[in-house]
Please model this.
Amino acid sequence: MLFRRFLFTPSKITNDILQLPTHELLQQLGYVKQASSGVLHWLPLGLKTLRNIEGIIRRRMDESGAHEVSLSSLSQRSLWETTGRWSNTELFKLKDAKKKDYCLVPTCEEEITWLMNSYLTSYKDLPIIAYQITRKYRDELRPRGGLLRGREFLMKDAYSFHLNSEDAVSTFERVNATYDKIFTDIGVPFVSAVADSGDIGGDLSKEYHFIHESGEDTLFRCNSCEAVSNIEKCGSYPVESKEYLGDVSVKYALNEENDTLVCLYYPASRHLNWNLALEAVDNDLEPQTRYMTNEEVLAKFTENYDPMFNGIIRVMDVRLNSRSNFPDFPLKSYLKNNFAQLNDYSIVDVEEGEICAQCEEGELESAKSIEVGHTFYLGKKYSKALNATFRQQDNSDVVMEMGCYGIGVSRLIGAIAQVTRDPKGLRWPSSVSPYKVSVCASDKSVDQLNKVKALLDYKPYTDFDAKTSIGAKIQQSHALGIPIAIVVGPKSWPNVEIEVRGNFRSKNWETSYEKLHSQLGWEYNQESGKHFVLHENANDVVNILLKDL
Ligand SMILES: [Zn+2]
Model:
């Protein structure tokens, strides 16, 4: 007796299903099932898709020389206290029977640094990069539907360890090259947004996005130098130097030593950009002062204020000029020698159509996007806190440099589904599709169906309800997003029909068609977009088409 196969996917796909938001569509079609808010179970189709994406990532990471590991999901409190991250409210915390604290890891800088530090001793052991593809946890207060932001998710995280910053930065570049290959293999158009502080002591980071109107992120792209940046990192200049006569807002902050007051001035109609402000002052801002009110910052600064020793820095957004309407300066006494003014910095969020600060020529255009990957040069942020050192040639101990690199694997499935779906349902690229091909046969064509199945290189999807019509089977195959459907019916036999559901990334198949169509008995009907071929040759045609899908 055969096991029942079509348990999770409805045999009839209705229009109501096809109009659902993507996270519900994935549930209705039998990819995943929501267990509770932000928590999903993976069903056979979803798991196959997940495995395909993991396979692409694993192949490219292994090829780059990274070592695969798999760390425990449980992590002890002490490590997180050392790095100051135990207080993070999104950390999933739990206690064992002896009341000892643990968390379910959201990321593994702490554990991997501890792990590697117990093996890495000499400069000869470096550089090294380790990665894993494991479940991660985040105690989201308001998890979003489905795969894009869950409380449990699958992530590929990689960590690299280095002798010095030059080596760490060159590995950062190499991992980005690997990411380009991974996202090219996946086959969905992507952009990488560069964020370079320009200072080796600062943080280098790069994000990978799919452009889509439903995205939560906003990217800006320069129409001249083509640089792409997240709004959080996008410097801009006003279109023309207009006299800004409007009100000026100020945000007070302190430097890291807490001995200098930093006054950030910007047009009141605009939104201050903390990252750009950081760049203006060489990253020397006390992070906490970002969230303090101006009164609180001033109170802290004036506690022990001494005009002889304490400095004041005024940072002016490029849009301001001396005729702008500035607020009163709060301190009456200060020494000219301890006072500095930085002019013409861009410290507000960019607006559509402003000038690119990188090339100073192009206009910046915005696009909504979904972030799917992120790479960071970390410097010594974690290795210093966790005292991860190695011994140099001269026998002195030095703190390692680090980088970390993430790809949201389960998030990628949600993102790919979202950006490729259309009114007929999902539309996977063949690289990730749970099946590359389906065979839809009428119930009178069982022998022919088996003949075609036996000829194919790829195991086809055939888990249809036998009682449904051939049209319903084709519709189901299309809704599931399978790139190619082979239709087997008594009328056309010994020919079969091939319907392409996928999105052509290239049209190389047309050259093959010119060369091979008479030899293979392959006819392409331009009007219907369908292919007809002798069933013995269906596998050849499927393989030719799949290369473009
Ligand atoms: Zn530009």
Notes: The first helix runs from residue 15 to 18.
